[in-house]
Amino acid sequence: MQCRSCGIEIADKAIVCYRCGAATTDPVRQPAALKRRRSPLAAFVAVAVLLLLALYMGMAARTASDPEPLQTVAGVLAGAAVMLLILRVVRRG
Ligand SMILES: [Zn+2]
Known about the structure:
- By secondary structure, this protein is an all-alpha fold.
- The protein is about 50% helix and about 0% strand.
- The protein has a domain at about 40-90.
- It has helices at about 40-60, 70-90.
- Helix 1 runs antiparallel to helix 2 (about 70-90).
- It binds zinc ion.
């Protein structure tokens, strides 16, 4: 067959022209990926927000009007729990 782009004779089974690289058939549409890929940036932002939230919660507990060690621990634990939860959600995708 002939290349549709440059007209040179190429093999019938050729997918692209060896001379100019033009495709011999119409580009087949790739089926949409079933899995939506989450962008690494989104995951990174989620983790960053989570870390900040954990830090904030820990600091909030620490600077509470009636600071107690238990409150600080509770704040840190709560932040860690939220962080783990978000991490699971992010990884599930
Ligand atoms: Zn060609």
